[in-house]
Amino acid sequence: MNPDQPLPRKSRSSNIDRRTRLPVAQDVARLAGVSIATVSRALNEPEKVRPATREAVMKAAAELGFVLNSAARALSTRRSSTVGVIVPSYGNEVFVRALSSFQRTMRAANYQVLAASSEYDLATEMQEVSFLLQRSVDGLMLVGGIHDPDLYTRAERSQVPIIQSFSLSDRHYCVGFDNREATFRAANYLLDLGHKRVAVVTGTRENNDRAGPRAEGVRLAMAERGLELIPAHDLTVSSGIVAGRDAFGQLMGGPEEQRPTAIICGTDEIALGIMSEASERGVDIPRSLSVIGFNDSSFSAVLSPPLTTIRVDADEIGKISALALLNLMNDRTMVQMTRITPELVLRGTVAPPAKL
Amino acid sequence: MNPDQPLPRKSRSSNIDRRTRLPVAQDVARLAGVSIATVSRALNEPEKVRPATREAVMKAAAELGFVLNSAARALSTRRSSTVGVIVPSYGNEVFVRALSSFQRTMRAANYQVLAASSEYDLATEMQEVSFLLQRSVDGLMLVGGIHDPDLYTRAERSQVPIIQSFSLSDRHYCVGFDNREATFRAANYLLDLGHKRVAVVTGTRENNDRAGPRAEGVRLAMAERGLELIPAHDLTVSSGIVAGRDAFGQLMGGPEEQRPTAIICGTDEIALGIMSEASERGVDIPRSLSVIGFNDSSFSAVLSPPLTTIRVDADEIGKISALALLNLMNDRTMVQMTRITPELVLRGTVAPPAKL
DNA sequence: ACATGAGTTGAAAGCGTTTACATAGACAAC
DNA sequence: GTTGTCTATGTAAACGCTTTCAACTCATGT
C-alpha cells in the first residue's frame, strides 16, 4: 500500500512483536529494586526472603501482572509439574470419573494433567506415552497392567514413575481391585439363588487384565460348585450398549434349555444393552433373566428395573492414584499396592431362576 | 556406612544425577558429526538439510534414543504446542464427546490438550484459565459465551486465541448452535401435536447461555400460539439424573388440569430422571406425558421407551473447534462463526396429549 | 577469470527461569 | 578489635533448544 512506510521490524518468532511484551522476572526485579534471584525466591520459597523484600516483590509482580513462565521453569528445574493419564476410552463413564478425580487432586497440588485415550490399543497407548514423555511429564497413570514392554523401559529411562490403576500387580505400584474376585462374588450370589446357567459377557480381553479376570471369576465360582461355564455362555464383545444388544441375541438365540438364566456383564453399558434388547423381545427381567452389571454407572440406578451391579469407587481410585503418584514423584515412601473393594449393589435385575 | 568413599557429586537438581543422563541435541550432533543447529533443522525442517546429513542425524538420534526437550523448545519458540479446554462438567456426556474429538484433532496436529472443568462456576473457570495461561497454552476452547470479563483481557494480553463452543456469538469466534431455536422447534413439534401445556426444565441458567435460551425457545413457541409458559412449568434444577426425578415431582404434583402434558428437558440426563420417576409412579410415557431430551446421549436410544431428543453433534463441535483454533493459532484466516444444526430425533417418548 | 546466487552449515545469541556460590552485613563471642 | 556464624541478597552459570547471521561450497552465467 504505502511503500514509504518502513516495515515493522520482523520479530524473532513469527508472532507479531507486541509493544506490550509480557513482563518477566527481570522487570519485576527492577521495579522492586532487587535482583532477579530474589524475585525467584520470593515466589518459590517466600520464607527465605525478608518479609519486607518479599512484599516489595509481590507488589511489583502484582502491579505488572507478572506470571512465571512455566517453560523456563521446567527447563531450569527439569520438572514440568505435569502428569499424564491414559485411559482406555472416554466412552466408559468409570474412567472419566477416575480421571476427573485424579485431575482434581493433581490440580490441588499444582500439577496439570495431560490426558489421552488409547482406545484399548497397545500401540496407540505406547504412542501416547511417547508423546507424554517427550512433554516430560513427571508421572504417569495407566489403566491396567498390560502395556507395550517398551513402555516401562522408556519410562524408567526418563525416571518417570508409573501408577497402575483398576487392576492389581505385585510388580508395579497400583491402586485397583481384584477383578476376578469381584465377579466371583457376584457369581456366587447368583448361584446361591439357584442359578445353574450363568453367562458372562465382557468387552475385549486382548491385552486387558480386567475383562479376562472378570470372566475367570465367574468360571471359577461355577467350577467350585461343579458347574461348567460353557463356551457359548462366555462372550467377548466390543464394548458399549449396542454390543450388549448383540450379546443378548447370541446368548438367548438357542433352545430354552441352553439359555443362561443369568448374565454377568463386564460393564453397565453392556448390561443396559442386554436389558434394552430383552425388553424389546419381551423377555422379563429379572423373572426370566437376571442381569448383573459392573461399575455402577450413573444411569444404572434409574433403569427399570434398576440394575444390580458391582460398584467400583472410581473417584477413590483416581484420587488415591494421584496421591500415590505425588508421593512417588517426590521420592517419598509409598505403599506398593492399594486395594479397593468393589461392592455388589443389589437392585432389581436379579431374581431366582424361573424353573427353580 | 563407608566414610572413605567419596560422596557422589551433588547434582544441581535434587534428583539423582544418573550416569544415564538423557541424550540432548549436542550428543546427537557429536555422534552425527554436525552442529547442533543442523540437528535442530534436521528434526524440524528436514527439507532444509541435505538428505545425507539428515539421515546421519536421524540415525544418530535413533541410536541414542533422543527426544526433543519440549520445555526448551517452548522457551525458545515461545509456543508450547499446548491448548487448553474448559468444559462445565465431565458429568455431561456431550462435553466429554466434544472434548474427546477436540483432543483427537489436536493430537493429530501435534498439540497436547490440557483439560479442566469449571463445575459451572465462573470463578473456578477463571482460575483454571489463569493456570492454563501460566502454562502458556497457545489457544483456548471454552463452552458458552459467558465468562469472567477478566478472562478475555488476560487472554488477549497473552495473545491466546479463544474459541467459544456450544453457543453462538457475534463478538467471538464460535462453533455452536442456536440453543433457542433448537427448543423452539421441539416445542412447535409438540404444539403441532396438540399439546397446550408444555413445561421446560433445564440445569442452572446463571452465567449460562445455553440453558436460558433453551427455556426461551419454548416460551417463544408457545407465545406465538397465544399460549403461556406458566412459571410453575419453567423449572431450573441442578443438572443430572436425580435433578430430573425432583423435577418430575414438582411438575406433576399439582391437580391434573395444571400438570403439563409434555416436558422439554435441557439434557437427556434430566429426561432420564423424569422417565424413571414417571415409571415409578405409574405415569405412562408417552401416553400421559411426553418427554423430549437434549443431546442424544448414548443411553437415550435404548431407554424404554426410547427417548425423543434434540441431537447435537458434539464430535463435530469438538473437531471443528479444534480446526478453527489451529487456524487462529497460525494466523490463518478463519470464519468467525460455524453454525451446527441440532436435529430433532423422533423416538418413543412423544405422543399427542391424552385429552385431545 | 570473476561476480552472482542458491543451497548448506556452523557459531553464537537468545528464550526466562533456578540455584550454587560468593558476598555483605549484623551480631555474638572472644 | 578480631573472628566466626548467620542470614539475606546478588552474580552468573546452567537448562536444551531455535534461529539469525555469516561463511562457505558449488554451480552458473558473463
What's the N-to-C terminus distance of chain A?
Answer: 91 Å
What average pLDDT do the residues of chain A reach?
91
Task: Give the structural class of chain A.
Answer: alpha/beta
CATH architectural arrangement of the largest domain in chain A? 3-Layer(aba) Sandwich
Number of domains of chain A: 3
Number of helices of chain A: 12
| CATH fold group of the largest domain in chain A | Rossmann fold
Largest sheet of chain A: 6 strands, parallel
**Number of E-type strands of chain A:** 12
Shape of chain A: elongated
Percent strand of chain A:
5-15%
Largest interface, with Cβ-Cβ < 8 Å?
A-B, 59 and 58 residues
Order of helical and strand elements of chain A: HHHHEHEHEHEEHEHEHEHEEHEE
Overall helicity of chain A: 40-55%
Strand adjacency order, main sheet of chain A: 2-1-3-4-5-11
Description of the structure:
The structure is a homodimer of 356-residue chains. The termini of chain A are far apart. Chain A is built from 12 helices and 12 strands. The model of chain A is unreliable at 1-19 (pLDDT under 50). The longest helix of chain A is centred in the first third of the chain and has 16 residues, at 93-108. Chain A has helices spanning 25-32, 36-44, 51-64, 70-77, 93-108, 122-134, 149-157, 179-192, 211-224, 241-252, 268-280, 314-329, and strands at 82-87, 112-117, 139-143, 162-165, 174-176, 198-202, 234-236, 262-265, 290-295, 308-311, 337-339, 343-345. In chain A, helix 9 links the parallel strand 6 (198-202) and strand 7 (234-236). The first copy, chain A, is of the alpha/beta class and 356 residues long. Chain A has 3 domains: 25-66, lambda repressor-like DNA-binding domains (434 Repressor (Amino-terminal Domain), Orthogonal Bundle), CATH 1.10.260; 81-177 and 315-339, 3-Layer(aba) Sandwich (Rossmann fold); 179-311, Rossmann fold (3-Layer(aba) Sandwich). In chain A, the strands form 2 sheets. A 6-stranded parallel β-sheet of chain A has the order 2-1-3-4-5-11, sandwiched between helices. A 6-stranded mixed β-sheet of chain A has the order 7-6-8-9-10-12, sandwiched between helices. In chain A, helix 1 crosses helix 2 (36-44), helix 6 runs parallel beside helix 7 and helix 10 crosses helix 11. Chains A and B meet through helix 4, helix 5, strand 2, helix 6 and helix 11 of A and helix 4, helix 5, strand 2, helix 6 and helix 11 of B. Chains A, B: One of its GO terms (molecular function) is transcription cis-regulatory region binding. Chains A, B: This is Transcriptional regulator. Chains A, B: Keywords: DNA-binding, Transcription, Transcription regulation.
